[in-house]
Amino acid sequence: MTTRIETNDSSLPLRRDVKSLGHILGEILVHHGGTELLDKVEKLRGMAKTLRNQFDEQIYNELKEEIVNLDTPMRKQVIRAFSIYFHLINAAESNHRIRRRREYQLQDNHVVQPASIESALLALKENEIDVTTIQNVLNTLSLELIITAHPTEATKRSVIEIQKRISTILKSLDNNMLTKKERKKLEDSLLNDVTILWQTDELRDRKPTVMDEVRNGLYYFDQTFFDVLPEIHQDLEEGLVEQFPGHNWEVPNFLRFGSWIGGDRDGNPNVTPEVTWETLERHRDLAVKKYKEALVEVMKRFSHSTTRVEVSKELLDNVEKEEAAYLENEKKWPVENEVYRRKIAVILARLKEVGKSEIGYQTSEELLKDLYLIQNSINNHQPALRELKMLKKLIRQVQLFGFHLATLDIRNHSGEHEAAITEILRKVKVTDDYTALSEDEKIKTLEAVLKDPRPVLLLNEDYSKETQEMIKVFTMIKKAHDTFGKKSILVYLVSMTQAASDLLEVLVLAKEAGIYRLHADGTVESHLNVAPLLETIDDLTAGPVILETLFKMDVYRNHLSIHGDSQEIMLGYSDGSKDGGTLTANWKLYKAQLEIHDMAKNYEIGLKFFHGRGGSLGRGGGPLNRSILSQPAETIGDGVKITEQGEVLSSRYLIEDIAYRSLEQATSTLLEASVNLSEESEQQHIRETAWENAMEEISTISLKKYQSLVFEDPDFLTYFTEATPLNELAELNIGSRPMKRKNRNRFEDLRAIPWVFAWTQSRQLLPAWYAAGTGLDSFISKDVENLKLLQRMYEEWPFFRSTVDNLQMALMKADITTAKEYISLVKDKEIADRIFNNIVEEYEATKAILLKITGDEELLDHTPNIKESVHRRNPYVDPLNFLQVELIKELREQEEPNEELLNEVLLTISGIAAGLRNTG
Questions:
Q1: How far is CA 357 from the centre of its chain?
Q2: Are 268 and 151 in contact (CB under 8 A)?
């Protein structure tokens, strides 16, 4: 049975670390700014802390006056002091997560950590799930995590790496066996790294290029994923052997990472076909580099001699043959009897030439064949498995990463494809104006083109620059398949999919590039999955009809048959939330999955839902395992695909131990949920019709409330633009992609990331909670029994529990008192007061109704660690908010651009982002 650790106060070591780091920062402040700087920071911190404990208007006004009266040099130092403090807290909390995990592992009575691989396997054993069922589930288990370059990571790489070093030192200091000398050395290193942090620029001096973003993404493959992914698979396999002995367990490669970075063209003109090609080359180069490093380590240990062991004849013959073929100009391994080392020398020589000459491996399958040859030979004479684990891990790495490292998804806007198709079809006189056709006419036209083997592209025709670029994209994909393998690019995502023709247009472009082919005998070749991205509330509602239209078409069914009769569908959490509010968006997403799943079942089509979640609560963020559980149970067995964006990468995957824990939680959750589904247990049918009806009613009311403010209030956009640092965010160099889809001042063209980022900075966090309270309260007010219904939904329905908990988190991070400061930035006082009062009223109503549903006295009572973290940070975030308001006010009054003022504003933005651990 799973038990919990009982401690008097598990956060004491964390508090000790935070206090220690605070003292070090204090020393550095004195060194660089004298006692005056430290005293000022301490005074502001103390006043903010007092206000948090009990609001006092006099202290509140004194705090504001202190901030207003700061001179420019001191003000900048104060901003940096609070910002640096958050980076130190983040490092300490990262180490504390590792510490808590180790506490479970070190328990004498073998305490099992919840949501671990071991706890999942114990649960399966206790429920007497048979091994055949478990193996069948493993064979279909699938979790894909896709890293993106969405610009939500406000912290520079150099700062992130310093945080990592500080966290590592704190971990080392936990060792009770350290000598006095060793401890002194670590403490000196800690002081040095905090000093370096203070002396490092927090802000980027230029916007990152796409290739900068590619390098940042590859950092996590190099430092974390390459080792952690095989470890998860290995630990699951060993756990199965331990809990269910006697069965020959095989754990397939169910957990993978992919990428959008370098392939996401939607709204980013900097992602060209040439950039995507360079990205694929970088992927291959890193994969080869990692294999070389691993093989060098394997070679050190595989010194077996043929005078001591009997090596397989197949391996001996292979080595003799390949040394002659591949080491003709290379130095052969000097010791003839060390056959394994001789073979590894050949492998290294061939890896060196990958992508350069015919000597190099052409596919990763060829490399695997050589590794299996070594493994099979060693199995004949190796009594223990310990030494083999290194080779086994390498084999798993090659299986997982190949030479492509990570499958690169390509994404583009549906309008871009339509424009290209319109020009192409006009040139060949198929139709004069494709865009003017009805949807039925578009489908008939595209079907006819797909059923005709003849190309529609004219070889010598001059197309517009935009159409030529689109043609180059698909030509590049075909070349990538030939050079890097089909796995290098598997999926083409269509943003703003609004009709079936949006997907058929992509197939036509693929056909012209030779990626989709119709042969003379009527058979079809198709090497690219085409996936719709359903984003807005209207698109989510129309999703089932769009897909059913495609499933009814022979030409599309033939395409799907090549891909195992499976359709990938991406669901956008950002634009749906921006369009209809977080509660309505989450319900529409859930409902769309159910409707599409039921419809696809009738056509015997398998589905994979791709969840485009952001890091922030307003864009579907939250713990990975909770994201999985909140999906309809029926869809989990189809496989899960989720984006991992911006600051999520550093918070989850910067440190190997934390990366392992996050992926372990996701694995255990997915495994248990999939087994429950396959067993047709009660958990599969736990969702009740009354719950769905309740959500539909709540969602409808919530949507109306949300849109009455965001779309129907003529002054709302003015309030949003002026009462948040939206315009200043554009100057923060955190992404290669523009803030707006088009250079227009329309709400519809504003991207969801700056929308959420700006609200978060102003502590209003409106996208993450607004209108939920009205929907929930209206439902409860109708019938006294409805509160009991919602309480039961919270206890028994993972989707509703996740929704309510995320709302609680949003309200906890929001702060009305601090947010009130931002209304002074709005020029029209009537607009400011009216809209802010609306927000405050909804905030209070939402908080009250959530506490009724959960039965708690305060928000997040059920998650004390998170609650304490928010409380720990708030007194230090508040001064930054006050400073930000004063600086923005001063900046906007300037007739000429003031770089110094802007720089200070950007420093507050970076500091608040670090403090709240959320941006967009």
A1: 37
A2: no
3-state helix, strand, coil in the chain (%, to 5): 65, 5, 30
How far is 693 from 207, CA to CA, in rounded Å?
A: 47
Q: What is the pLDDT of residues 771-782, one digit of tens each?
A: 999 999 999 999
- Residue 375 near residue 392 (C-beta atoms within 8 A): yes
| Whether 44 contacts 883, CB under 8 Å | no
Strand order in the sheet with 529-534: 255-259, 143-148, 640-645, 606-612, 566-572, 529-534, 491-495, 410-413
Residue 354 has pLDDT above 50, yes or no: yes
Q: Which of 164, 487, 578, 591 is catalytic?
A: 578
- Dihedrals phi, psi of 644, to nearest 5 degrees: -120, 115
| pLDDT at residue 83, rounded to an integer | 93
CA angle 679, 685, 691 (to 5 degrees): 160
Report if pTM > 0.85.
Answer: yes
- Reduced to 3 states, what is the DSSP secondary structure of residue 888? helix
Locate all alpha helices (DSSP H) within 814-854, ordered by sequence: 816-819, 829-854
Q: What's the half-sphere exposure (Cβ side, CA atoms, 13 Å) at 888?
A: 30
862 catalytic? Reply is: no
Selecting among 40, 87, 96, 150, the annotated active-site residue is 150
Lowest mean pLDDT: which of 499-513, 610-624, 668-682, 790-804? 610-624
Label residue 693 exposed, middle or buried (CB < 10 Å: 0-12, 13-18, 19+). Answer: exposed
Average pLDDT on 697-708 reads 97
Tokens of 799: 């989707």
Q: What is the pLDDT of residue 8?
A: 42
Q: What is the DSSP string of 132-173?
A: HHHHHHHHH--EEEEEE--S---S-HHHHHHHHHHHHHHHHH
For the ranges 115-119, 306-310, 550-554, 873-877, which has the lowest average pLDDT? 873-877
pLDDT band with cut points at 50, 70 and 90 for residue 683? very low
346, pLDDT greater than 60: yes
Average pLDDT over residues 229-239: 96
- CA distance to 410, 497, 502, 734, per residue, from 494 (Å): 9, 6, 7, 25
* DSSP letter assigned to residue 749: G
Tokens 């004849």, residue? 313
Among 818, 827, 819, 822, residue whose Cα is nearest residue 885? 822
**Tokens at 483, concatenated:** 């050079």
Residue 216's nearest CA partner among 820, 600, 566, 648 is: 648
Least confident of 367-371, 445-449, 786-790, 913-917: 913-917
Helical segments of 179-265, H only: 180-198, 210-220, 226-243
Average pLDDT, the chain: 90
State the alpha helices, DSSP H only, in 463-620: 465-484, 501-513, 537-551, 554-562, 573-580, 582-602
Greatest CA separation found in the chain?
92
**Range name among 142-156, 444-458, 500-514 with the lowest pLDDT average:** 142-156
Residue 283 annotated as catalytic: no
Kind and range of the H or E run holding 182: helix 180-198
Q: Which residues pair with 434 in a beta bridge?
A: none
pLDDT interval class at 510 (50, 70, 90): very high
Question: Residue 608, SS3?
Answer: strand
Query: Packing angle between helix 339-352 and helix 364-378, nearest 10 degrees?
Result: 170
Quickly list H helices, 679-763: 689-710, 716-722, 726-729, 752-761
Please state, as a whole number, how many other Cβ atoms lie within 10 Å of the Cβ of residue 696. 12
d(CA 833, CA 839): 10
Asked if 729 and 758 count as a contact pair (C-beta separation under 8 A), the reply is yes
d(C-alpha 878, C-alpha 815), whole Å: 9
